[in-house]
Amino acid sequence: MSEHKKASGGLFGLLARQYLLFTLTLLLIGAALFSLWDWYTARLYQATDWGALLADEALAEGRYDALRRALAPGSDFAVYDGAGALLWACGEGFDEALTSRELAFIPLWGEGSQIDAYELSAGAGEARYLLVAHTAGPAGREETSTAVLDEQYRVLLGGLADGSQAYTAREYQYLTGGRFPDGYLARWPFTGRDGQSRTLLAREMFMSESQYQQVWRQGSWIPLLFVPACLVAAGLFIRRLRQRIARPLAALGDAVEGQAAGRDVRVGDCGGPREIRRIGESFDRFAALLAQSEAERRRLDEGRQKLIADISHDIKTPVTVISGTVDALCDGKVPPEDTERSLRLIQRKAADLAQLTEAFHEYSKTEHPRFELVLRRVDLCEFLRAWLAQRYDEIDLAGFSLEPDIPETPLPCQLDELQLRRALDNLLSNALRHNRLGTVLFVSLSARGDEALLRVGDNGEGIPPRVRSTLFEPFVRGSDARTGAGSGLGLAITRRILEKHGGSIELAAEPAPGRSTEFLIRLPLESAAGG
What we know:
Blueprint: H1 2-42, H2 50-55, H3 57-61, E1 75-81, E2 86-89, H4 100-105, E3 114-121, E4 127-136, E5 142-149, E6 155-158, H5 169-176, E7 183-191, E8 197-205, H6 209-219, H7 221-244, H8 246-260, H9 274-330, H10 339-367, E9 376-379, H11 380-397, E10 401-405, E11 412-415, H12 417-434, E12 440-448, E13 451-458, H13 465-468, H14 490-500, E14 504-507, E15 517-524
Parallel strand pairs: 10-12
Antiparallel strand pairs: 1-2, 1-8, 3-4, 4-5, 5-6, 7-8, 9-11, 12-13, 13-15, 14-15
């Protein structure tokens, strides 16, 4: 009893460790979500790719609304015509019209110029403004110019590069960047498709520190809450495992022990969570398959024993005849006039033995896991014509006639010509061996969808019903006796070769009219195989 509890505790410990690993995975997911949240907030710092926006064809075509997709949060722009009138704006606060001087005071996009403004005290309530302009000079050197303005924005001392001696209040705002104190403004002159000159004003609004802090505070509680939630969920899950896993696992354990003891045990509906019920169902399917496998093993053992007996019998018969005849010759028991006949008998039996050995060799090769075909693209129609031409003399000398029906349209297949010829030779040899003179052989070929259908039949003796279901098994012959001609391996070899081609062979249950035997061979066409 204590050992059983110990084993159960060990299993539960394993499940608990696995769930703690799952909890760790949840924590990693939480960290990934936190990183995603951090990335989302970092997008607030991302500026608009003005270079891509200015190069967009929609700008020259006047499709300004389509450029909204390129704007980052806090960015907008406006378009003015050549006279300074506002044509289109996607943000608020842009002036309805700008003078040429006001536009000129706005820095060009990418120019790198900047004007810093400082308010000075002149006493008596008068204001003075110091302007320091930074511009890029030759060879990338920075050039600086200064000017002092009075409260009416008139130049008192120095001067800027534009040469102005006085500015209006709005010109001063555009000159110093004070038109939009919380943003940056730049201009980009361009020509539309209609040939009219226009100016784009790009505006980047800066987010204040308080706005950044507000966004941070809005989402900061999410990662802090996720960790305790994961721990609470882990505790609840472990408690649920304690309540629901013991009984179904015990049922599964009893079933496993029963199978190990050799009993055919089924779990049935073991209850518990769905996953454990599925394990029980899988175990029952496994037990059923195991029983089938055991039955199949016994059947194969019986078949193996029969195979060994058949091979022994087929080899023993010619060896016995050869051995007896040789002993008779050596002992002088064969009259001189019968010597040649005895030697001819030895020769025939040796040839039968060689043929049987070759059949065993071919069968073992086709059944070997490493048996592979050497495939190439072949026109099946042309292959059959060549094969029938090679075997025509043999068919004619045997007293048989041939009626081929092969289409002119090519039927390309991936074939191993040597192996397919061997498979068809086996069919033809069986037909010539087991039928009488005057039998007609039929060979027809047609396309059926994505496969070629080859019919090989005759109007001869037919195949006994008792062997039709096992005809393609090794050592099956038309007669139950083991004295008939042939090894009984030809059709087994033929089936294996056709299966390696991706095809099949079967004995037609109802042969075509005028035929007693008909084999149906199917081979995939090259187009169906993706060639």
